[in-house]
Amino acid sequence: MIHRIRSAARAAGGLATIAMVVGFAEVAAQDHRAAADFLTIEEWTVPYPESRPRDPFVGPDGRVWFVGQAAHYAAVLDPVSGEFRRYDMDDGTGPHNLIVDDDGLVYYAGNRANHIGIIDPATGEIDKIMMPDERARDPHTLIWDENGDIWFSVQQGNLVGFLDKEAREVRLVEAPEVETRRGMGSSRPYGVKLDSENRPWIAHFNTNLIGMVDPTSFELLGYDLPEGARPRRLVIDSQDRIWYVDYSRGKIGLVEEGGGFQREYDLPAGEESRPYGVAIDKYDVVWLVETGIQPNRFVGFDTATEEFVGMLDVPSGGGTIRHMYYDPATDAIWFGADVNTVGRAVVSPRSR
Questions:
Q1: pLDDT for residue 32 is more than 60
Q2: Is the N or C terminus of the chain more exposed, i.e. has fewer CB atoms within 10 Å?
Q3: How far apart are CA 77 and CA 137, in angstroms?
């Protein structure tokens, strides 16, 4: 069952001030909680052509793992040497994202093959945990919880999943159906993030809904967004406020537990922006990518001041940047791009 909460809050209209200096993201002069003066972006060409590298994750040894969705592999990049190593999966796997545990085991979403796979990098062997319900055919985005278990979305299957890593048991929570041109269909649970209380929050891409699953009762609570909103991914700041990117309407918006939708801001490219990949750094600055324009563009948004803090184009153009990972140890935001690159955007703060 899903309990939906409608918010009476009004949207905050208009675009906040943007300060920029020839390609680098400059921070406005106000006292800022060590937010970025600029980003620097470096990209590596992936040696597996037209494979759609995506959804990188930094492992415990500092190497960067990612999947090749179109070519059915996982690979790892050593950013020091620039060397790649590839681990092939079964044809038709269509891996969507991956995460790495403290022991270096790689868990990936078998998006076209109804399983979560586990790669042992030492041997290359793959173990599969199959989904217990045929509707869960497309595991989508995996995240760790604080206990080392996994929450994940199932976009077309219209489910949110939980994997008990030790027991290898999967539990599924039904998401609400929505009316489509073909009748009732999936609300498309998509991006997933965890708050400080170990609760997963989910962007439902086929409707104007942000959901949260209670990890004790496994009930789904929903917060309605403005009509027409299509949240694709989200992040959560240090105050447990939920910031989502609206792919359809070109906005960044805020949801708070208990109060629901609060306000939203137009992105620099407006409805053409198609915000997709998003990450939040340790200074509570949201970095999103406008993928509806070429080249794709990083945009920074300071959640403390609720102002945009700059923009930077992706050197390769990006094609489409779909998902990003922030590594606090190096202040680096990792991304994969449809132009067959893996990239690192490094946040250079004004002060520590």
A1: no
A2: C
A3: 29
From CA 352, how far away is CA 349, in angstroms rounded?
7
E-state strands within 11-138: 20-21, 24-25, 36-45, 53-58, 64-68, 73-77, 84-88, 95-100, 106-110, 115-119, 126-130
Structure tokens at 231: 């949240």
Q: Note if the bond before 295 is cis, omega within 30 degrees.
A: yes
- 328 Rama class: left (phi>0) / alpha (psi -120 to 50) / beta: alpha
Q: What angle do CA 105, 107, 113 make, to 5 degrees?
A: 140
Average pLDDT estimate for 126-137: 97
Residue-level pLDDT at 109: 98
pTM of the shown model: 0.90
Weakest mean pLDDT among 2-11, 114-123, 129-138, 307-316: 2-11
Long-range contacts of 254-263 (CB under 8 A, 24+ apart): 255/210, 255/223, 255/225, 257/212, 259/7, 259/9, 260/5, 260/6, 260/7, 260/9, 260/223, 260/224, 261/7, 261/9, 261/223, 261/224, 261/225, 261/226, 262/7, 262/9, 263/9, 263/10, 263/11, 263/12
Checking 253-259 for CB contacts under 8 A at 24+ apart, the result is: 253/11, 253/225, 253/226, 253/229, 255/210, 255/223, 255/225, 257/212, 259/7, 259/9
Percent of the chain with pLDDT over 90: 85
Q: How far apart are CA 245 and CA 24, in angstroms?
A: 22
Average pLDDT over residues 239-253: 98
DSSP state of 78: -
Q: One-letter amino acid identity for 228?
A: G
Fold classified for 2-349: Methylamine Dehydrogenase; Chain H (2.130.10)
Confidence of residue 181 (pLDDT cuts 50, 70, 90): confident
CB atoms within 10 A of CB 101: 15
Separation CA 182–CA 231 (nearest Å): 21
Tokens of 322: 């779909």
Q: Tell me the β-bridge partners of 177.
A: 186
